[in-house]
Each structure stands twice: as structure tokens, then as C-alpha cells.
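Example record

Each entry pairs one chain with its bound ligand, zinc ion.
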Amino acid sequence: MSGPAVLQATQRRRRLVAVDIGSDISGIQGGKGVPKTEDVLRDIDDKFDIALGKLLELVSIQSISSEPAGKDGIVRAAEWLRQELSSIGLAADVIGTKGHPIVLARSSAASTDNKPRLLFYGHYDVQPVGDIGQWKHPPFEPTVIKEDGVRRFYGRGTSDSKSQLWTFIEALRGWKSVHGEFPAEVIVMLEGEEECGSPSLPDFIKAHRDDLTCDVAFICDAEMWSATQPAITTQLKGLVHERVTISAPNPDLHSGHYGAVAANPIRVLSTILASLHDDKGRVAIDGFYDWVRDIPDAVRQQWRDLSRQPELFADVDLSGGIAEEGYSPIEAMWSRPTVDINGITGGNQGPGERSVLPGTATARLSFRLVVGQSPETIRQRFRSHVKRMVPKGCRVEFEGHGGSSAVVLSQDSLYLKATARGLEKEWETPVVLRGTGGAIPLVEQLSNTLETECVVIGFILPSDAIHAPDEHYDSERLRKGARSWIRIFDEIQAQMPSQS
Ligand SMILES: [Zn+2]
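C-alpha cells for the complex follow.
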């Protein structure tokens, strides 16, 4: 999208300049910030126990966004964060939405004149606890425990996503306290509805378009490649949900009387669902792959190298799975569109037997889209496919709207490169440029709607029991996560145009 607002915003931007830093990370000198970088890193290390204590305080606030009982925790967490952001010198507000509030903070522009504007996104809401009986550690009373040589703490939101936002807040605090100013003009946006689908976010972004205009948005909601190797996510899939219900001409019937002759919606639905894939694992909906581009050779090569890592699928048994023919698991997961059947209901679901021809049957499906596929087109093509297969006399109804498109972020971005160099310096290993089968609708909204450059990173791992009982995190990733941002700020400063 383009328009006057975008144009105006673009004029305000201060881009980085390409400087010849080379690709060898070992000998890089960071630039203007260098004399003080070690001081900031030392400050992060020296004050680490304070930072950790504060994070535990935040985790103890029960900010569950999808349950009415979490409302009080949401309000308290938002206010707690507003105070923390204010205390490090940002002008912070808690801004109401139709749903849960967004905490928005910014530095004063005067002190950061001629510097790029960086936006940091995180979310402070958490998933529900689920079955409390499955937790060995209380979900909202985190304490640090030494386990397997690691200082670990358990609690809902420790990993997803309170640790994530705390890495950049702590880094901003450390930088400001040593340098006396922020590394750039800073905007912090913390959402309280990420775990329930971000319903208020699109309207918020539209209403605060000018406030959110920035040179780069750091979306800190992603995973590392491993506990010792950082990653930047450069490909995200889009997502469409659909619900389809087949109804027979009659309500429930006695299956003994009519099973041989009357329509059975579960049978109709099963036939339709089975027709969604061919025997090569490809989606068999007409036009499903229109506009889908093949994976570029260079990207295929990068991923082929990653596929050789034996620990890649160590946690999951893939036997019985059907991947699309001609694609490796990583290629299929990150770059090929898919349809998944998420649930089927209909007929007898009770404890005892009931010989019934059900009146209706419903399936829920999700489509994971790649670049080139529009959510609405895919929805319509799926619906046409289903309608063609519904027998005479039966009815079909669909539910589903909206959806998000896939995003591929440029690997040539100077901000992405600066981020990669910063991460490599801190972790002393190459950064993995990865894809994901998941969607972050915010990235789509910022990058496609506001044309904002996004860098998607984070310091969590699937093995942190995200969304599961005994979610946990460890203090070393928190410390190195905060330090990573210092290195990234340093790299960005090295590439800023010199002030005249
Ligand atoms: Zn989550």
C-alpha cells in the first residue's frame, strides 16, 4: 500500500549506509560506539541479578489474555511495564484498545536527532495454565533453580514471551545508563493480546500509523536455532482458517433403517477431505499452486546445509508423515503451502454406542500460505472444490474470514546484516537465517501495510515447554539475549551516516 502517510513517513526516515565491513566477523571493529561497548556489556553483567529479579516479578503477574480472570493481571502487567519503561527514560503510556491495552513508549526525538528510529515489539500476555495438575512447579511463583548446570526458572510466560521483551528493555536500560542516551530513536510496543490472535492490533496500527513509523521494527518473538546458536527468521507463512459443515437432507436417522440408502454427511465429508491431497502429497485443489514460486537455488542450498544437522528433528517422530514429493522436510515446512485438517466432529461423540446416520458433520482446516498466495483466493478455491463434491440434496456451509499472507524478508537488508553481525559477535557462531511454518500477523501488517522493514529474532527454544506445563527459561540466555542487543546497537551505529 502506498499513500500520502507512507510517503511522509518515508521522508522522515534515516537509513543506514552500507559500509565495507566484510564478512569475516572475527576482526570487525564496531565503529563509533566501540570505546564504550565493553562498558555497557559489563553493566549488563554487573546488574544482571537485578534484571533477573525484575523479570521474575513480571512473570508472577498472571497476565492471561484469553480468560476473563486474567484481566486484572493484564492491567497490572501493562502498568508494571509502563513504570519500568518510564524509569529508563522513555515516555510510556498504556493505551486502551477494544481488547487489552498496548504499552507504547518512545524516546524524545531531540536527544536522538539524525539517528534511525528503531521499533521493538514484544507481548506481555501469556497462555492459560491448562491442567494445573501437570505442573511440577507453580506457574506464577518463579524462583531460580540450578538444574543440569543451568540456572533455570519455571513459570507461564518465562519463555513466551516475557523473557523476550525483557532482553531489549534491559539492553536499552544498560545502553542509556552508560552512554547517557539511547542508541537511536526508540519506540517500544508491547501487546497484550498476542496469545489470543491479536484482534485489536490491525486497528491500533492504523490509528497510530505515524507513531509507529520507523526505519526498522525488531519483532522479538522468535526462536533461536539451538541453545548456543542464534537465528533470524526471514520467512513466515500466511494462515487461513476455514470451517466446513455438510448437512444431510434429514436430521439424524436410524442407521439400520436408512444407512444403506440415505446420505451420511461424515462419509461425504471424509471423501472431500481425502480429495484434498494427491498421492504425491500435493494439495489437489484446482489453482492452489498458482503464483507459488519455486524455492530459489541459493535458499535451497542454505537449507540443505541445515538439514544435515542430526538434532534437527530429534524431538519429533516423523514416521507416518507424508511430505510433498520432491521437497526436503525443511523445504516443505518453510516454503511450501499446505492444508491441514485440525478437527472433525459429527454423529455420536458420547461414551456409549449409538447407531446413527448423523444429520451434519463439520471439519476445521487451516491453510499455511507462501508468498504469492492470497488468503481470499485460497479460501474461494477451497470452497469451489468442496461445493463441486457435495451430492445433490446435501447442503454445505462455510465459516471463516480474514487470514494473513506470507512474508519473505530481504536477506540484503542492512539492518538484518547488522543484526546478524551483532548476534555472531555475542554467540561466537554463525547466525542461521531460517524460515518457519508459523505466522506472525504483525510482521505481515508492518511489512506489507506500512512497508516497514522487519527483523524477526528472539532467544527462546521449542524445548522451553512453550504453551505447555512447566514452561521455563534459563538465566544465561537472558543475559546473552540482553548483551546481543548491545552488539546489534553497536553494529547499527557503525553504519549510521556521519553527522554533518
Ligand atoms: Zn505464544
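The domain at 4-235+406-495 is CATH 3.40.630.10 (Aminopeptidase).
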